[in-house]
């Protein structure tokens, strides 16, 4: 369901290729998408309930995560249709209602969710980084405190400013992704399938034209992939700079508190970065490789074969769809990351689920990674020192 197909005048347009899915498409993808629906939907509904009804002091960071949960909730609703598409796509006709729903409705939601999450979390990481370097003191001040205007630091603390950022992210994602996906669904998938299959036998939903798309989708894919790597590297740079800043800050804080803070922040960053890399990075690495393979391959029909044959990119298409599944899995893991890394969200969730006090304390000890009970007065002192860092870490789930 992504556009990366050679131009319409190539030799492939004369061929009657069809996709030959294996068990990975027919059974694995539908099963995982069905499981994703059962986990992502209740998880994001619970997260939204906690953000909107249980947290009394609503901070900018909660605003970002609330909008992220809304985006993930929309994605989770589409997963049953994706499961049906991979299981029954070879049976559906191209003009069937369910196929048209996948092309015109599900595809835009999928891509909008990915890039809303990308921009939202990148902004959260950068804003938390800016807040951290302003509110902590290292052996020497960070150069960013002089480069960024003071109004920017003041705006980071305002919920109204966070709301403007979220609305802007939604408008950018929808405005850039939806026109491309609509053009893909109306022109590249529908028209190419009709043109390439005059016999009418291959007018099924799961087809090369639907899975590969056309030239506009190809160009958009290259642009969006470049955009992803720019933001990905920006987040990495923020993480590295924060770690350096924390190490310099150790000279001005108690040794035990600083070591505990550094260990916790480093652990959180590693966990978050692993999830970010596992979920989104493989998909965006494979996309340009897939485009180049399609562009450089000129398909030719065998003169002895008049019936349709398996498309040579059937295996690559299955790999592409499996990597896209990894990107979608993030919608299921995000609520877990909120719970583990955000103390306010964790406490309110435990209250909502009516856990007893003993289990709550045990779980908080596990999530903080201290291995022993910490006195309440010491926790309050540490919270004051690390509030900006913890907010930065828990929000950068990707």
Explain this structure to me?
One of its GO terms (cellular component) is membrane. The protein has 398 residues and is mainly α. The chain has a single domain (11-395), classed as Rhodopsin 7-helix transmembrane proteins (Rhopdopsin 7-helix transmembrane proteins, Up-down Bundle). It is 75% helix and 1% strand. It is built from 14 helices and two strands. The protein has helices at residues 23-54, 60-88, 97-135, 144-147, 150-155, 159-196, 208-212, 215-249, 255-279, 281-296, 314-341, 343-352, 357-368, 376-395, and strands spanning 17-18, 309-310. The longest helix is centred in the N-terminal third of the chain and has 39 residues, at 97-135. The radius of gyration is 24 Å and the shape is globular. It starts with 16 loop residues before the first strand and ends with a helix.
Give a brief description.
The protein is mainly alpha-helical and 398 residues long. Helices cover 75% and strands 1% of the residues.
């Amino acid at each position: 369901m992504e556009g990366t197909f050679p131009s319409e005048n190539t030799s492939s347009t004369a061929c009657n290729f069809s996709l030959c899915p294996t068990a990975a498409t027919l059974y694995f993808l539908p099963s995982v998408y069905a499981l994703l629906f059962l986990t992502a939907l209740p998880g994001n509904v619970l997260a939204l309930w906690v953000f909107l009804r249980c947290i009394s002091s609503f901070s900018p960071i909660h605003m970002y995560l609330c909008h992220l949960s809304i985006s993930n909730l929309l994605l989770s609703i589409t997963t049953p249709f994706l499961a049906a598409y991979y299981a029954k796509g070879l049976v559906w006709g191209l003009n069937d209602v369910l196929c048209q729903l996948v092309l015109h409705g599900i595809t835009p939601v999928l891509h909008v969710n990915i890039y809303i999450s990308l921009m939202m979390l990148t902004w959260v990481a950068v804003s938390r980084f800016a807040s951290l370097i302003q509110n902590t003191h290292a052996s020497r001040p960070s150069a960013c405190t002089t480069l960024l205007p003071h109004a920017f630091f003041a705006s980071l603390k305002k919920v109204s400013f966070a709301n403007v950022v979220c609305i802007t992210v939604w408008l950018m994602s929808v405005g850039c992704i939806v026109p491309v996906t609509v053009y893909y669904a109306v022109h590249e998938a529908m028209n190419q399938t009709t043109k390439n299959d005059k016999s009418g036998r291959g007018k099924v939903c799961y087809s090369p034209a639907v899975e590969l798309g056309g030239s506009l989708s190809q160009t958009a894919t290259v642009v969006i992939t470049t955009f992803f790597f720019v933001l990905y590297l920006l987040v990495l740079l923020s993480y590295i700079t924060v770690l350096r800043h924390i190490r310099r800050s150790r000279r001005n804080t108690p040794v035990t508190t600083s070591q505990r803070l550094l260990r916790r922040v480093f652990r959180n960053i590693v966990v978050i970065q692993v999830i970010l890399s596992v979920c989104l990075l493989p998909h965006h690495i494979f996309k340009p490789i897939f485009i180049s393979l399609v562009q450089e391959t000129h398909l030719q029909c065998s003169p002895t074969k008049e019936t349709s044959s398996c498309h040579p990119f059937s295996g690559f298409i299955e790999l592409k769809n499996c990597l896209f599944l990894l990107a979608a899995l993030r919608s299921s893991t995000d609520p877990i990351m909120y719970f583990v890394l955000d103390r306010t969200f964790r406490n309110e969730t435990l209250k909502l689920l009516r856990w007893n006090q003993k289990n709550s304390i045990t779980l908080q000890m596990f999530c903080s990674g201290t291995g022993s009970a910490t006195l309440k007065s010491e926790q309050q002192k540490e919270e004051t020192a690390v509030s900006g860092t913890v907010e930065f870490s828990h929000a950068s789930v990707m």
